[in-house]
Every structure is written in C-alpha cells, then in structure tokens.
Amino acid sequence: MSDNSANQHFRGQVRSWGSTNKPNGRDGGVDENSPLLNGNHPDHHDHHANGASGDDEHRGNKTLKFFFDTRHTPGTDSSNVAVKYSSHAWHITKVTILSNYVNFLLVMVPIGIIAGESNWSPTAVFTINFFAIIPLAAVLSFATEQISMKLGEALGGLLNATFGNAVELIVSIVALKDNQIEVVQSSMLGSILSNLLLVMGMCFFFGGIVNMRDRVTGQGMEQSFASATAQTTCSLMTLSSASLVIPATLYSVLDKAEAKEKEHSILLLSRGTAIILLVLYIMYLWFQLRTHPNLFDAEIQHHNEEEPEEPVMGPIAAGVVLVVTTVLVAICAEYLVGSIDPLVESAHISRNFIGLILIPIVGNAAEHVTAVVVAIRNKMDLAMGVAIGSSIQIALLVTPFLVILGWAVLDKPMTLHFETFETVAFAFSVLVVTYTVQDGKSNYLEGAMLLGLYIIIALAFYVSPSDALDKVLSAVQG
C-alpha cells in the first residue's frame, strides 16, 4: 500500500469511528444518541448533538488533511496571498517528507552540516553525514519521479536514467575534486557490486523464502522474470567488465615502460573507452525506450496492475525540491569526503572498504529496500529492473562520465585502470550473476550464493591494508 493510499485509508477509518450505519433504512448498530446511552428521549437535543458531532468530525478531518493529505492542503486556494503561498510551501514540505519512510533521517542534515562546520571528530562527521545523505537520496528520487510523470514515457525515462544515481555522482565528483581517485573508483565498483550481489541476492533470497511453496499443490516453486531482458543487461555488464580488464592487462604488459609512458597510455585508453561506453549507453536507452520497448513489457504490465499514480506536486515545485536537495547533498558529501582521510588514519579502515561498501549504501538504501519488497510480492521484473538497471547506469554512464569530467574539466587523472583485485572481483561477480539469471528463474539458494559472494568480497577489502591496494593507483596517478 502506497503512502497516499495508506493516508486515505486512515482518513476513511477516522470518518467511520462512531458513525451510524443504517442499511435499508434500519439501524445497523447501536446509535450513539440512543437513550440507552445518554438516558434522554431520542428527540431531545438530537439536532444539537448531531451538530456538535458534525463540527468535531469536520475539525478532525480538517486537521488530518492539513498534516497528512498529500493531495490538497487547506489554504492553498485562499484569496489571502500570504496564506496561499505559506500553505503551498507547507504542502510541498509535507508531501516531500511523507514520500518515504526513511525521511525521518532528514533531521541529520542540519546536524551533519553543523558537525562539519564545527570540526567535530572525523568519525562523527562521517557518520552523521552518512545518515544525512540517505534520506536526501530518497527525496531526489521522489522529485525526479514527480517531474518525469509530466514529461511522458521517453523523456521521463531519460530523466530517471540521468538522475537515477545522482547521489553517487555528486559524492564521486566531490571526491574527484579532492583527488581521492581510489575512493571514486571503489565507490563506482561498490555501487555495481551492491546492486548485482547484495540487492539481487536479497531479492532472490527473501522473495524465494516467502514464495517458496505453490499455494495450490504445496510443492517447491521458483520465481520467474524476463530472461531476455536480463540477458541483454548482463551482456552490457560483461562489456563493462571487459572495459576494466583491458586497462589492467595493458598496465601489466607495459610493466617495463617508464612511468610517464604508462600513465599516458592508460589515460588515452581510458578516455577513448569512456567515450565508447557513453555512446553505447545512449544506444541502450534508445533500444529500451524507442525501438524495443516490448522486451520490457513484463515490467510495464506489473505497473499497470496497480492504480496509476498522479503527481502530487507540480513540475516547478518538484524542480525546486530537486535543486535544493542537490545542493544539500553536495554540502553533506563535501563533509563526508573531507572526513575520509582522518577517518582512515584514526579508525584504520581502508579507503577501498569505505568506497566499496559504505558509500554505495548511502545512495540507494531506500531503493534497495523497495526492490526487496516488490520481490517479496513476487514482482521480480520490477526488482530486477532496480538491481540491474542501476548497475548499467553506473557502469556505462556515471563511471565514463567521471573519466571525461576528470579529463576535460577537473584536470584529474581519473582512469578505468582499477586495482587488480577490484577488477578480478568485479569480473567474477558479473560471471556469477550472468550464470544465475540466464534461465529466468530464481530461488532462495541462488540468493544466498550471491549474498555469500558479496560478504566474501567485503571481508577481503576489510582485511586488506589501504596502502597495499593503493600502490598501483599511486603509480598511475604519478
């Protein structure tokens, strides 16, 4: 049940409390105004009692609508300009806060900014801003969806694709400006792995547990999804894996070359590859939204089974929310990234672990929970769309864009040459996922395997000293 329908259902319950049901003109229950309850004649003060009850109900409904109705807020149609605009501002604020259950963490945003400005301990600054960005990511997603509802399927899909990983992009740009290239690379790889292994594994596991038995026969059953779509996206993931393996292989071949020559070769290869990946991503969007949308019909059908949603705020208001939230994400990301170096020194945690495991949680926590929920409801195409679709965006859009940005704007040596261990972990993960989804079916055992692989990789990066993983990167960065 959505937040809007939940609120409507709750308001309906409030209206029904204490009401008198009289089907076919006869009492369906005990009347509150019955002499059995108040000791008076039925006609005595009847009009007064009903009037008082009506006033109380009206005031209750008005108060409830003011705080919980996301469709309309009293005062927005007032002739008083001050009342009208203040009511509109409250309506936008209310709708935004009630859009997702994680938004209670928005209280961490001002605390995180204060912590960064007041030079609190690195652990406190990192932790508070870490939790502050989680609801901001949910608000970004909500505002993007509100705008896309007014743009039509093609432009809406393009907007969702562009802003789908906005938080990871903002955090990575801030880290790239700070020359923390290893954090950027690890966060990109971590976002892909968390979607392919953690999210998909949880979807398979919990969806498989809840839907383990056929309700008619009682026999074991598997969940199904569109294998053709999964195969197409996995082919793109295999391509992105190759785009990381080839630079690592070239670096090994050029082992005896001078450092400047190796750096020049890796940068040239990475920038050319980034351009090709961006072109392929544009072609993928055209393929999905224009020429072959029928391949994604299974996902669309699940959407059509439910009551179509209407935007709860206008595009201008949603645009304002989008801009304000983006600025807040950038501020919190600045403090988050700025606390990484002191945190690594004080807590003895590798930068790669922070980038690979912790930062990916920030941008997609709410989206990940949504994917698991729809998997439990046996809507695997939607769950797969969240997991694999986000991975495609990171691999073919965000990572190549950061390479181009570092080259053309920031003058930073961002490359596709990842540390060898990261590249191997990514390649094996893509291989395992491809074999897992090729039959178009899933169960809890396959989910447990994906989760197990993710935990193994996380443990490997946790126990690996940061200096050991940064040696190769420092050589490329000069």
What report would you give on this structure?
The protein has a single domain, classed as A middle domain of Talin 1 (Up-down Bundle). It has a two-stranded antiparallel sheet. The chain contains 19 helices and two strands. It is mostly helical and 478 residues long. α1 packs antiparallel against α3 (46-68), α11 (259-291) packs across α16 (380-408) and α15 packs antiparallel against α16 (380-408). It is found in: Endomembrane system; Vacuole membrane. It is a multi-pass membrane protein. Residues 1-23 have a biased composition (Polar residues). It holds the Pfam family Na_Ca_ex. GO terms for molecular function: calcium:proton antiporter activity.
How would you concisely characterize the structure shown here?
This protein is mainly alpha-helical and 478 residues long.
CATH class: Mainly Alpha
Termini Cα gap: 54 Å
Q: Can you tell me the number of structural domains?
A: 1
Summed up, the helix count is: 19
From the spread of the alpha carbons, the general shape counts as globular
Q: What ranges have pLDDT less than 50 throughout 5 or more consecutive residues? A: 1-42, 299-304, 470-478
Element-by-element helix/strand order: HHHHHHHHHEHHHHHHHHEHH
Strand residue percentage: under 5%
**Overall pLDDT confidence:** 77
CATH topology: A middle domain of Talin 1
The largest beta-sheet arranges its strands as 1-2
Please report the total strand number as a whole number: 2
Radius of gyration: 27 Å
What share of the residues lie within helices? over 70%
Name of the CATH superfamily: NCX, central ion-binding region
Structural class: mainly alpha
Identify the CATH architecture. Answer: Up-down Bundle
Give a short account of the largest sheet.
2 strands, antiparallel
